[in-house]
Design goal:
The complex is a heterodimer of chains A (280) and B (81). With 280 residues, chain A is an alpha/beta fold. Chain A has two domains: 152 residues, Leucine-rich repeat, LRR (right-handed beta-alpha superhelix) (Alpha-Beta Horseshoe), CATH 3.80.10.10; 103 residues, no CATH class. Chain A has ten helices and five strands; from the N terminus they run αβαβαβαββαααααα. In chain A, helix 4 packs parallel to helix 5 and helix 5 runs parallel beside helix 8. By secondary structure, chain B is an alpha/beta fold. In chain B, 41% of the residues lie in helices and 11% in strands. Chain B contains three helices and three strands, in the order αβαβαβ. Chain B is globular, with a radius of gyration of 11 Å. The model of chain B has no long low-confidence stretch (mean pLDDT 89). The chains are: A alpha/beta (280), B alpha/beta (81).
């Protein structure tokens, strides 16, 4: 039987990435087992800038360490902000592939929670043994790598990313709740008795800017960036509704809180490789 | 057109995996779906293991560029399986 046989045509792969960028709800793209090679994947990643893509599969696509520069550039940029999972199995990335993931997660990326690097030709002799711990996030590598420091380190940083994303989402929901009360003014028809009675909630009489400042203090740990807070406050004040049928995740995407914003002012305090530091 | 419409499952999945589809086949299916207004309601497009190669990928790219904004597509399977 004939197969898809998508090749490493850079122009077509760039166009395809532009098309993917134009799909507002696309979460998963599977391109495994096409011979895209280093140049094809590099072309694809150089243009990919989806606001919704959470998972990409590029297993068995003929990759070598040559593509790691472009892979790092993509995974450390804002363009990969929603990406939670990448599969790179059965590519000849070697030890450089695992070291590259360490670098990406250590320096910048806070969105990845799952990485698969099974059968990529990692040289065990380069790594010393260390006991790893179980975790809820996923890093799939060959069995002989399960006790290496690199595996342990990447696993901890994937945990960190998962905690940051969850904290961002829960803080966003908390802020929305309070913002609805303080910012959304519902028109009421008051009776004569109510006109003379004091307000039950005097904070509502404060100027809008002060109420907004008070709400921003609900983010003392800094999981939400200024930009994310502004989007939540604007959403709350406008009285918009995502509707019953719309998933929670869609609302998070709408206010850009489906990921931790690595570039905001407090982000450096989360530049840790130990997820326990964030939990505490 | 009617047959194309019937390809879509209740959850919006269009599964055309291993159907030996060429680029003209893919183009006809996309045109049919577009004509009956179902193109935008697909949530999963599985065209893994077909025979359309680069021209088919270019066709999909142009379709997404033209209609993507209104599409509900969440999952795209293009594996060479």
């Amino acid at each position: 039987m004939l197969k898809n046989n998508i090749s490493d045509n850079e122009t077509i792969l760039r166009n395809f990435a532009l098309g993917v960028n134009n799909l507002p709800r696309l979460r998963r793209v599977y391109l495994s087992s096409n011979i895209l090679r280093d140049n094809g994947v590099s072309a694809l990643l150089s243009v990919l800038n989806s606001r919704s893509l959470q998972r990409i599969q590029l297993s068995m696509t003929g990759l070598t360490p040559t593509c790691l520069v472009n892979l790092e550039e993509y995974l450390m940029s804002e363009r990969s902000r929603p990406l939670q999972s990448i599969r790179l199995n059965a590519n000849l990335l070697g030890s450089e592939g695992l070291e590259s993931m360490v670098k990406i997660l250590k320096q910048m990326n806070t969105s990845l929670e799952e990485i698969e690097l099974f059968s990529v030709g990692v040289d065990i002799a380069r790594f010393s043994a260390e006991v790893s711990k179980r975790s809820s996030t996923e890093l799939t590598v060959d069995a002989h790598l399960l006790h290496t420091p690199q595996y342990f380190l990447v696993r901890r940083m994937l945990d960190r990313n998962q905690i940051l994303r969850r904290r961002t989402a829960s803080n966003a929901a908390q802020l929305l709740l309070a913002s609805r009360v303080l910012l959304l003014r519902v028109r009421e028809v008051k009776t004569d008795d109510q006109l003379d009675s004091p307000l039950l909630f005097p904070l509502l009489e404060l100027p809008y800017e002060l109420r907004e400042n008070i709400l921003r203090m609900l983010n003392p740990l800094g999981f939400l960036s200024d930009s994310q807070q502004s989007k939540i406050l604007a959403y709350a004040a406008a009285g918009e509704s995502a509707g019953w049928a719309v998933e929670y995740i869609r609302w998070l995407e709408l206010v850009d809180c489906h990921r931790f914003d690595w570039h905001h002012q407090y982000a450096s305090s989360f530049r840790t490789t130990d997820p326990k530091e964030i939990e505490n | 057109m009617g047959r194309t419409q019937n390809l879509i499952g209740p959850t919006g999945e269009l599964n055309l995996e291993h159907n030996d589809l060429s680029t003209p086949d893919l183009a006809a299916i996309i045109d049919g779906l577009n004509e009956c207004g179902f193109l935008t309601s697909i949530s999963i497009l599985n065209v893994a293991g077909n025979a359309f190669g680069d021209p088919g990928l270019e066709l999909l790219a142009q379709t997404f560029l033209q209609h993507g904004n209104n599409m509900q597509l969440e999952k795209l399977c293009l594996q060479n399986v």
